[in-house]
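From the pipeline queue, job 12 of 40. The input is one protein chain; the requested action is below.

Action: predict structure.
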Amino acid sequence: MKTTSSGLTPTTPRRLLLAAAMVLSIRAFGQGTVYFTNLGLGSDVVMGHPITVGTTTYAVGSKAPPGTIFSVALYWSPYDPANPDRPTASFGQVGLTGQLALPGIYALGTVTIPRITPPGGSAWLQVKGWETACGSSFEQVGAGLFGASAISLVQTGDPTTGGSPGRLSGIGPIVLNGDPTPCVAEPSSALLGFLGAAVLFCLRAETRSRQPGRPENVPSPRG
């Protein structure tokens, strides 16, 4: 009796089950995508205090200078259907910190927000900006110029179906206010560790040189 091959290896059903489980897992935890940009939205990053960069002065109300002078980050809070008018959980940063690509404009690509249920659901979003020299995150800033946009409820995109990412419509501008005194970047922990090790080495060398009985401390014979 002849038999025909089904074309499936014994492990194929297991692989199919694993793939299905992965899809269900993504849907269970949920995700949502959003374009992290204010391009074309009329929600520029603007100066609340004048600054001068090189020979260019940026007056109050003008678009903030591009480059690494200012940083921005996206923050989110889960949407609670029982409280549809306001966020009920604290905001946390999602995605990477970036800088302004054009005057007043950030364009940092697509950000995937985890734990949005259902996938592609709504989320409360806010963008925060600050002087890069004053801290590596908004939470570290204690001086310099900083600000935050309005809080907006945004419909995100569903990555499990290939839906387009949501847009930051209604996010509003960021007005950079605060202390105009220039910030001095703090030394990194690696640099502080290196300096500490160097000081310790010098102290130990000085201590050894003062110990009695060492050849360098024996007086030379007089003729």
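Job complete. The longest helix spans residues 189-209.
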